[in-house]
């Protein structure tokens, strides 16, 4: 990570910390420590402080996870296999990380929806992009795409709380049920 520019290291470190401990649990000192960056560099690159940094992390993480999920989705030969691959992959990630890594967008959205409209809008923009990408793959069925995203995000919450992949697989089966 030493050869990665400081600004990028700060973004990557913040994204990782948000995934594991959320927005409110992530302090700026922890960010620079994780990034191996001097504290002053944070305000040099993000003069708007934590809010600016967080907004950029939300958008960057949203694009990254969308690409990751759509790649897994697009590798499959049928819509049903694609949807199942997304839920199975999420379950595998949860197990491999001892339920620490979930969706950073949902984590932040739950924390800031009533307190920070800039970050609420950023998370809404990411979710909208995800629904639109999935809508394209589901032949324009926006309701189905929204339902699949809702099932996935809700399953992340329950799986982490219960420390079980059972909710993720149950949500995956529910998402499949409506595909016909």
UniProtKB/TrEMBL annotation:
User: What Pfam families would the database entry show?
Assistant: TetR_C_13_2, TetR_N
Tell me yes or no: is Transferase among this UniProt entry's keywords: no
Recorded superkingdom: Bacteria
Taking every annotated instance into account, which residue ranges of this chain make up the domain HTH tetR-type? 4-64
Note whether Transcription occurs among the keywords: yes
What does the record give as the DNA-binding region? 27-46
Q: What is this protein called?
A: TetR family transcriptional regulator
* Keywords carried by this UniProt record: DNA-binding, Transcription, Transcription regulation
Q: What GO molecular-function term can you cite, just one?
A: DNA binding
């Amino acid at each position: 990570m030493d050869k990665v520019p400081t600004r990028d290291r700060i973004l990557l470190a913040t994204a990782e910390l948000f995934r594991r401990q959320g927005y409110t649990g992530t302090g700026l000192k922890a960010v620079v420590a994780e990034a191996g960056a001097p504290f002053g560099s944070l305000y040099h690159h993000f003069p708007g402080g934590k809010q600016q940094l967080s907004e950029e992390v939300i958008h960057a993480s949203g694009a990254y996870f969308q690409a990751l999920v759509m790649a897994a989705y697009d590798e499959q030969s049928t819509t049903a296999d694609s949807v199942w691959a997304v839920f199975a992959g999420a379950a595998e990630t949860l197990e491999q990380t001892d339920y620490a890594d979930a969706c950073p967008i949902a984590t932040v959205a739950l924390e800031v929806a009533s307190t920070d409209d800039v970050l609420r809008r950023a998370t809404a923009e990411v979710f909208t992009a995800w629904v639109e990408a999935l809508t394209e793959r589901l032949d324009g069925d926006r309701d189905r795409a929204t339902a699949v995203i809702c099932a996935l995000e809700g399953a992340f919450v329950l799986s982490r709380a219960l420390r079980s992949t059972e909710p993720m697989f149950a949500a995956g089966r529910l998402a499949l049920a409506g595909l016909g």
